[in-house]
Amino acid sequence: MSEFDFESMIVTIPDYPKPGVVFKDITPLMADAKGFAAAVKALADPYRDAGVTKVIGAEARGFMMGAPVAVELGAGFVPARKPGKLPRETASQEYDLEYGTAELHIHRDAIHSGDKVLLVDDLIATGGTMVAQVKLVEHLGAELVGIACAMELEFFNPRGILAEVTDKQLHSLVKIK
Fold it and tell me: Model confidence over 95-117: pLDDT tens digits?
């Protein structure tokens, strides 16, 4: 595990985006070259010997964390996008939001049986986007090897939510209680 103090680089913003919400801004960590490099390395380290062939990151901050982790692991990167954003045939998975639903798409030919997939994001809260990605990986016949996030909002119980769809453990750098 990294000795870098990731939590010190996360800025707390009260009442954003609305009163009563405490927003945790991870962009200062990504803006710091040493901090960002340390985060990418720390997210990748537990999976170095797992044979990861693809990393999936969800739009948009999952791209910023997932793509460099893919490079770090010598793997390909697969973007999970909102509907209508990918030009070829896609597989999709709907997931629940607080008020309604959303959907993620990946290209059908982006992952295959035999691929070993790592899911990476900047943050996990309620786990909806991760659950959708787990289901997409399963649907396309690939093997999920892990789930990694820079920040975990423990008070939403994302580990319990993930446990309903996978036995893979969540690896997070910062846990917010």
Answer: 987 778 999 999 999 999 999 99
Q: Which of 59, 61, 103, 108 is catalytic?
A: 61
Q: Parse the chain into domains and list their residue ranges.
A: 48-176
Contacts of 42 (CB under 8 A, 6+ apart): 1, 2, 4, 6, 173
> Does 81 qualify as catalytic in the annotation?
no
pTM of this structure: 0.95
Residue 32 DSSP label: S
Catalytic residue among 3, 88, 89, 98: 98
Residues 151-173 pLDDT 10s: 999 999 999 999 999 999 999 99
Question: Between 3.30.1050.10, 3.40.50.2020, 3.90.550.10, 3.40.50.720, what CATH number should domain 48-176 receive?
Answer: 3.40.50.2020
